[in-house]
Amino acid sequence: MRRFAAILVALACPALHAADKPTAEQLDYFEKHVRPVLLAECVRCHGEKKQEAGLRLDTAAGLKKGTDAGPAVVAGEPDKSSLIKSVRRKGEFPMPPDKELPKEQVDALVQWVKVGAAFPESAAKPVAPNTVKTHWAFQPVSDPVPPAVPNARTPLDQFVVKKLQEKNLSLSPQADKRTLIRRAYFDLIGLPPTAEEIEAFEKDAAPDAFAKLVDKLLAMPQYGERWGRHWLDVARYADTKGYVFTEDRNYPYAYTYRDYVINAFNADKPYNRFVVEQLAADKLVLGADKTPLAAMGFLTVGRRFSNNMHDIIDDRIDLVGRGLMGLSIGCARCHDHKFDPIPTADYYSLYGVFSSSNEPKELPLIAEAERTPAALAFEAELQKMEQAAADFEQKMYAEALAPFKRPGSIADMLLATKETKGFPSDKADKWAVERKLDPRMLDRWRTAVTGDDPIFAPWLAFTNLPEKDFGAKAKDALAALKKPANAHVVTILKDAKPQTIGETAAVYAQLLADAAKGAVPNADGDWQALVTRMVGDGGITNPLPGDTDKLVLIATKKVFRKLRNDAALARVKSPFAPPRAMVLNDNARPTEPVVFLRGNPGNRGPRIPRQMPEITVGLDRKPFTNGSGRLELANSIVGPTNPLTARVIVNRVWTWHFGQGLVRTPSDFGLRSDPPTHPELLDWLAKRFATDDGWSIKNLHRRIMLTAAYQQASVTTPAMTAADPENRLLGRFNRQRLDFEGLRDSLLSTAGTLDRSKIGGRSVDLFTAPFTPRRSVYGFVDRQNLAGTLRAFDFASPDQHTPQRFQTTVPQQALFLMNSPFIGEVAKGVGTKVSSAKTTPENVTAVYRTVLSRNPTPAELALADEFLQTPGPKNALSPWEQLAQVLLLSNEFAFVD
Questions:
Q1: Which of 604, 403, 436, 601 is nearest to 509 (CA)?
Q2: What are the φ and ψ backbone dihedral angles of 354, each rounded to 5 degrees?
Q3: Where does the UniProt annotation place the signal sequence (predicted)?
């Protein structure tokens, strides 16, 4: 009889059906990470004009056809895909034949195949101007009048009922009060109501009983924990960086961003302010309270891509685009967006915003440190440890970079920029290696040496001069410059009168080597410009540590790594370390961005201003002039003329309530998205949200939850199923399965061990015994080694923005619920409700009320009695605890109607 636990698990898990066509997110991934690799590395030999071995890789049909040996890609099975074997260089034909692809490109191809190898079925056509003008998401938010519908409970219901009536359908009956209170509890605080709370609500006959319940839940601190976790999916939250070579992988202060989000939801911080603080809190006047600085973790808790700054910035652009405006701006990194009106220039306008910001080494405090003797002793010891690591690091990198600040090295690099002019970066790297030059340093010089720069404009002018009569022509070239050059450069060139380009390089090199020694007292502005260009933030010979790391001897790095990691570990683990905010600061000199042709930083196109994408604000957009432009960007995103922001967040909140959005692609409102099922309702809600409700998320909850549409039952009828099988018209409520956090937290709550006493704090290990009683939102998220249980239960990927969680059914879910020691502990906690002083029916009732918040039916009492009387195999759990586990595995516990 006890085997029926396994049957309950099977019944609790509906079958998973694969999608028939690629999702917008899958196609975005292809456009961002896969198509650029295919274009750069494959289509020369396997494209429209040439198909070596009969293989074509620029169409879906070509990939499917493959060669005579079989398809190039087997969706879902990278190990069986010949393309993956080739790029891994494990197949018969390693590709590309002349070099290995970078690991991140191979990983992107593998991930693409693993999740279905999505490929647009047909070539993208240019976006028609009329389509852009008429696309619903790019129109100003309208203010429609709710349609006249008799007996509709609220204006929102008028929109829903009108749509249903057009199909001769109606709303389902109101759900019973037990269903409503469970729905509201799980929806707003992610926890189950007790049997006593359900009974009290059922007895409350007041017309506003549900409204009072909603207000009560919105006022509970557990609300922020539940809804903050929704936003952390959007923000790709994690406590680690991913792979970063030998650096410490932890983000010691990521938790301060998580806590900021939780507190912002609890305080009902207006969403427009919430957005601005997450992008530019450092640019706001904050007063004594510095906690809003923690909001900037939105940008900085992302993956670090082996410290590739271009990819880090791309991740931030994608987050801002899809997360806040429903635009896949990242797809325009290498080419104009294939579907939406987003040119590459708009991508690099935003690139300029984020490349003009940096993360300070010393993060700002957002709360005072404890002043107890133990805390002061810890702080003093930590400062010594960190100072020792910082001193060693400074010395280590200074020694590694010293050769590059010598005149001979500088002259070599200047001449190398001349020889590699116009080279794509991979060709320039190969050229440098062949000549025993450092390719990373050459890339920095190639980036810095531009014609618009007052320091290097004379150099570029001289590189175009013929060898014959070089000296005479150099004097004329210097006089012909269109803009004033750096005064020190002009003076030294006039005095030295170089007769060849080599002599010019030597003159420049001596000047720049002197500047690389650092600032001098009373220096003028032009000399300071030389110093900044060489050794200031982002200077040519002052690269980020990750870029310099390979120049340092392995033995030296080991010493430094131990010093740094010891200090980092002390800071992470000590309860005395005060919280700090993971902020960005503006660079002293903002980046003037250029377009990277085909996404290649070494192949530069036109210069463009930092500004908003045109589609979001129209033709009258203005360049950003306030530092990096992050504050102007934030204000534009929440500005009254942006048609996207209010619609996107309203649709997200709707999705988190109903399980599906009015727009089915919450992070893609572009031309590929399906139109809203209820466009007038979406605009009506967005308009109310941004005007009447003052961007209040809690008021939006009330507008949604106090409707007949939200409070209807989840049952369907044959007519409803036939007319609207996907429930797009909202004729019933969608039954929803608890996500991982809801399931784990409910288990702890049921056992009576959930810790509700503290909001916030450092992240904790959820999966090692003794198991923490803290809520799941406080669990440590390691993006490189995500816990297997989290993966099994469809936890949001911390590697990228997650618009909506998938729901899959895999055996690991059932195995966890049946065999995990954690579940055993919960069952034992429930077993404590059983008393020898009570009869069997009384004890069965106590277990049912604890787990399912209701009394058992007579049939369930009889079945439980039979279960308890039937001898079973020896088990670590008592029969009563096994009964509790059976109920914990039931659909009734794991699903919300």
A1: 403
A2: -80, -25
A3: 1-18
